[in-house]
Amino acid sequence: MRFVKGHGTENDFVILHDPDGALDLTREAVARLCDRRAGIGADGVLRVVRTKAAGVDGDIDTAGAEWFMDYRNADGSIAEMCGNGIRVFGRYLVASGLAAPGEWDVATRGGPKRVTLGPSGDVSVDMGPPALLGPGEASLAGEVFQGRRVSMGNPHLACRVDGPVAALDLSRAPGFDPVVFPDGVNVEFFRAVGERHLEMRVFERGSGETRSCGTGTVAAVAAAAAETGSEALPEGVWTVDVPGGRVTVTLDDGTSHLKGPAVLVAEGETCRDWL
Ligand SMILES: N[C@@H](CCC[C@H](N)C(=O)O)C(=O)O
């Protein structure tokens, strides 16, 4: 099986080219591919499949997008959206000659997302309006953190912390109420380090701590922006520093845009009989 490896601010992915939907991508196969010692190693898999061959017709709004991002977490579970993944997905389509630089929609389980990119450089994606769903809490190393529940198509709990995020122990999954989050949750911890400038760490559902999470950065910005108390989120450009680098999140026109690097680093083929 041919693959490409890529990352967006070190949130890394194995990209599988499956235009006609021929791959039987089991949960076990994804977990083996993502294993960092016995496999290729990644936070998730991006299966690149033509929307018409993805078997999602009628289930989701695809807006006529030619390509569908089938995203899987490292444990093989399916997620609705991946903000860094879709930027890497866009870079892959352009680098492979499957799409021209410019602007177009990619279908995801979280709805169609408009990707904007040039022949090289940063990739931007319209992530849609963050949905603020009210308060929530997580626990970590015996401490309880208050946060805001945010949907970016996938579920988030964004918690402000007082000290540097580097001091947090994310070696174990944060605790949360499974009644409030029946499908699990991605938990972000953020701190303001300047005006419209956050630092953030994340523990992702299905992948553990990752070095970046695109949907998580938008959720953290939405939670921080909501602290102003105004009914609509105030417009503005935010910088978010994550362990893997820096992205910008723009809140404008009732939507959000995520922008940052998306890099393809290697391509190869899995060995016969391995997977
Ligand atoms: N890293 C991603 C989010 C991937 C999905 C997430 N773990 C979930 O299960 O919802 C991003 O960049 O947004």
TrEMBL record:
E.C. number(s) listed in UniProt: 5.1.1.7
Gene Ontology molecular-function annotations: diaminopimelate epimerase activity
Pathway noted in the entry: Amino-acid biosynthesis; L-lysine biosynthesis via DAP pathway; DL-2,6-diaminopimelate from LL-2,6-diaminopimelate: step 1/1
Keywords from the named record: Amino-acid biosynthesis, Cytoplasm, Isomerase, Lysine biosynthesis
Residues the entry annotates as binding substrate: N11, N73, G83, N84, N154, N186, E204, R205, G214, T215
Localization per Swiss-Prot or TrEMBL: Cytoplasm
Family according to the record: Belongs to the diaminopimelate epimerase family.
Protein's recorded name: Diaminopimelate epimerase
InterPro entries: DAP_epimerase_AS, DAP_epimerase_DapF
Active-site residues, record numbering mapped to chain: C82, C82 (proton donor), C213 (proton acceptor)
Chain's role: Catalyzes the stereoinversion of LL-2,6-diaminopimelate (L,L-DAP) to meso-diaminopimelate (meso-DAP), a precursor of L-lysine and an essential component of the bacterial peptidoglycan.
Keyword Cell cycle: no
Top-rank lineage group of the source organism: Bacteria
Alphabetical GO biological process terms: lysine biosynthetic process via diaminopimelate
Entry keyword annotation includes DNA damage: no
